[in-house]
Input
Amino acid sequence: VQLQASGGGLVRAGGSLRLSCVPSGSIFSTADMGWARQTPGKQRELVASIAHGGSTNVADSVKGRFTISRDNTSNTMHLQMNLLKPEDTAVYYCNAKISRYTTYWGRGTLVTVSS
Output
C-alpha cells in the first residue's frame, strides 16, 4: 500500500493550504485515516484523524483552524488548513490504519509558513 500526499508548499501566516492523500489499492473505504506532522528534532505529532465511518478527531493545537475530511467516491482524504501559523511548519504525513497492528504511512509533504 502506498499513500500519495500532496498540497504542501509555502504560505504566509494567516493563509490556507489544502493537503490531499490518496492510498493505493482498495483499502480506503475500511481504513481509518489521519495526518501527523514532524519537525526536526521533535516527535511526530498526530494532527487529525477520521475513521472509516466519518468520525473525526483534531489536536487541540489546530482545533478551529484545521478540518479533516474524506471523499469515499474519489478515495481521497483532505486536510484543510486555515489561519496557518509559523509553528505549523512541518512535514505532514498521511496514514492509513487498516487493523490494530497495521498502519501505513506516506512519504510526507512539506508545509512552510512564513511570518
In short: The mean pLDDT is 95. Residues 18 and 80 are 4 Å apart (CA to CA). DSSP finds no helices and eleven strands in the chain.
